Amino acid sequence: MKFHYETVLHAPEESFSIETLRGPVLDCVRHVHPEFELTLVESGFGTRIVGDSIEPFREWDLILVGGMIPHHFLTRREDSDGPEWSKTRVIKFNAGFRENELPALPEFEPLGRMLGEAASAGLHFPEESAKRLAPFIRELSSIPGWKRFLAFAELLCRLSEEPRRQLSHST
Asked: How many CB atoms lie within 10 A of CB 108?
């Protein structure tokens, strides 16, 4: 199956991007990019494809995908019940973050381990984790400057403490 190469652009003053995607369907094609991607599905349902993993997704789906792992959220127009039926929040951050000094510090060992797991297979987090972390994900868009980066680092550290399972078995 073919996939689209996506070029991710961050604002010059930002090290990661945050998007809120709304619509009658999740407008997504199978794609890859070098950045990590954290996706929270707030509404909608369909089929999620990450590497060789094909599973249903629904509200409170939370995944972390490493760079260059093909992924896709497939929704069907006939399932939609309105113009805002599908809502997702997507954070994309540079894969270089994994090699940064922060995850290499002993205090951040769980973060480094999680990023390594996500880079090789993609990770799925349970609904309880998604509900617990959703307020942090939603708030990120409204935080300016260096406080935004610290809040993002805190989100990733909290995420690294959550249960998770590997998605793909061959990437």
From this structure: 19
Give every strand in the sheet of 36-43, ordered side by side: 16-23, 86-93, 36-43, 62-65, 123-125, 165-166
Reading the block at residue 62, the tokens are: 């939370």
C-beta separation of 22 from 90 below 8 A: no
CA distances from 90 to 21, 40, 63, 70, 118 (A): 8, 7, 10, 15, 15
Say yes or no to pLDDT of 152 above 70.
yes
- Cβ burial of 88 (10 Å; 0-12, 13-18, 19+) is buried
Place of tokens 């997702």: 88
**pTM tops 0.70:** yes
d(CA 137, CA 146): 16
Structural contact between residues 56 and 45, judged by C-beta atoms closer than 8 angstroms: yes
